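Hi R.,

Here's the chain you asked about this morning:
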Amino acid sequence: MKLIDKVKLIFGFSFFTIIYIFCIYLGFKKQNIDLSETKKIISIVENRGIDIRYGSKGKKDEVFYVKLKDLTKKLGVYRMSKNYDDLIKKINIGDQLTIFYYGNSNQTENVNIDLIQVERDNLILVDKSEFENKECFLIYVGIAGIIVNILILNYNRKKYFKSKKSVS
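And the predicted structure, written out as tokens:
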């Protein structure tokens, strides 16, 4: 293997390892959320239901949304199962809700799905653990990526970086 190919292999390994470590970092950062460090709004529900969320990269997802009187952007919950029946039953138009969320300045997204917790009369309707568990996926992706990266490096090390045995 040429030196340039070895440099490319090591650079690729390093680059992807950094990306996977960053995924793990983001996943851990979004665990054990302190609600006092998030945005909080107390407002009346103008509308709620199922809507299509248009993501920043053109991706479309079906989400449950809440449109509040005092907020221009819809807040939403994304579930891979697409099962929002419990939320439709719990949250009604005219309810006064306390919602904790992360702000999102991305104007191309019509629904901010960084909704962390929803409360009505001190009763938790959407618990922050649902958001934390969803973000836990990044940790798994990062760990799996690092393992695959190490396996690929080990395979290439054995194949291309043969140790030179010294002759005595």
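The domain at 35-135 is CATH 2.40.50 (OB fold (Dihydrolipoamide Acetyltransferase, E2P)).

Let me know if you need anything else.
M.
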